[in-house]
Amino acid sequence: MVSVSGIRRPIFVFLALMFLSQNLVAQNVYQVQHQPPTVIERSEPVSLTFDIPAININSVQDAFVFYKYDGEASYRQERASYDLGTFTTELTIENQSAGSLEYFFMVEMTDGDLITYPAQQQRSNPVRVDIVESSDARAANQESAPVEYTILSPESGTTVSQSDVLVAITLFYEEGDIDTTNSSFILTLDDQDITNEAAASNYFFSYSPEQIDPGPHQVNLRLAVPGDTLLVANWGFNVLDPNRQVVSRRGSLSD
Length: 255
What we know:
mainly beta; elongated
């Protein structure tokens, strides 16, 4: 005869496993895919997009982008629209003195849960993007050098891994257009002069940094002539942060 206790133990284990399985299903993980812009041009509209392919729109209560400028204590908020798995907010930076934009994304679910990007410490560690003058404003304020160019890498606005950063540009100009004896090219990365560290010739520059921080970066090539410095090329790119993954878990908003 089988004892009663011998029957109850397997049933208890089975029920415990069922509960554990349901609990794991409840701890759903959403993949929030977002590519921060390299830079944001002042007075020009910029679209911030956040992809959540697995989300059920019927379970979404609302979605917002919270943002502020450098030096500000509190966040503004802008509602995000939804279409086919993508949330989008368009911002235009009208603040004429701000140097950077800080923001984070939040989806409020109907069951009270939150989906955020970044996943943790959104308010104290938001996404940060530098604000630059618009291309029209830069063109109006700077005289260009008589040099054509092709940006080889990284292409403007692209995102690369830390190990793949190679700044390279090739130049095209007539020898008579530039007084090579009394002028020189200046290559900078984030306002740091890297000319002497770059592999260079009269028509080509390349630079591979030994170490570079994740986030946005800006490259400038100028031509220094007697009494003036002329713009040749400027472009931005983004370095992928290996520690900031695009995984956001359901949970509470954290500071």
